[in-house]
Design goal:
Layout lengths: L3 E6 L3 H12 L3 E6 L2 H10 L5 E5 L6 H12 L4 E5 L5 H9 L5 E3 L4 H63 L6 H15 L5 H12 L10 H4 L7 H7 L2 H11 L4 H9 L20 H16 L10 H10 L7 H9 L2 H12 L5 H12 L1
Parallel strand pairs: 1-2, 1-3, 3-4, 4-5
The structure holds fe (ii) ion (2 copies).
The site of one fe (ii) ion (FE2) has 5 residues, from loops.
Amino acid sequence: MTSEKVLIIEENNKRRAYLARFLSKLAFSIDISPSFSEAINRLHKQKEFALVVAGLSPLESRHLKILQDIKKIAPQLSLIILFESDSPELAISLINQGLVDHIADPDNLPGIYSAIRNEINKRDLIRENESYLQSLKNISSDRSENIRKALELENIYNTTIENLMTALDLRDVETLGHSKTVAKYSEVLAEMSGVKNMTTLENIRRGALLHDIGKIAIPDSILLKPSELSAGEWEKIRLHPALGFGLIKEIKLLKEAGNIILYHHERYDGTGYPKGLKKEDIPLEARIFAVADTLDAITSHRPYRKEKSFGKAKEEITGNSNSQFDPHVVDLFCSLNLDKWEKIRFETTKILPSFELFQQIKEERSH
Ligand SMILES: [Fe+2]
Ligand SMILES: [Fe+2]
């Protein structure tokens, strides 16, 4: 036990000596003041006291002012007063006013000792509590700071992916906004097929946004060629899923995103590319995406043909159920009213410039 410093104020010489002798034997380091004015001076200068023991027998009216002064100078100090219980009401009123923490009989030495110990224990508990509270506050503020940073980073990450794909939409023959629309379609179909995990849904959304990222590596001369492609050129185009998959490995996207990028041209009957996977060997997210991608391709304006209605798209998709598409995903698509799909498309493309403006930008670029 460290030796706690106790200030004793006792005007009565005999009592002062007696208290000092007793308390100094009990692992306290004692300082003694023979008068209140001297004690107040000392409290002004010295801050290391654990508590004050003040003898107030007999209790006089001037003591009230003295106690107030001590509390003002050292509000953190516990104050034990010693006095004979000749006026208990007055003593209780001192406690109620918060001027005094403990009262002990001046002749009851074990009582004084116990009062001192209680006050020291109380102070230690308060300190411990304060330090716990402080660490809790630190932990929670560190945490919210980390969460804020993570969200900020996530936001930047998502915006980067979206911007990257908008840039690619501008370069490619597909329509502006295609990536955002198929991302939302895929997310909705994934939810309908029972995917609940938010991270999985987010990865599906990102994979759909980035599905054609591999086209970055395909030269303009092939990608934008207005005439028919040769067999060799088709070969190059067909590399884009694997090229894209290679790219995203670098940016550490998770499984579902990679599956969409690598397998989005696989067909349910096994005649797709790059691997010719069949049925459930194709990851669910890629089977979902295939329907989403076709829905937007059919209902969007292309330079070489006009867009078709959502009703027409539904006919084409159901007509290719089991060959190009997973029949289960086709059923999910059909179970949602066409108005809903059209609404999604409207929402994801409404802030984008018109198709005509988009065409103009692309034409200027190719000159
Ligand atoms: Fe593609
Ligand atoms: Fe696409």
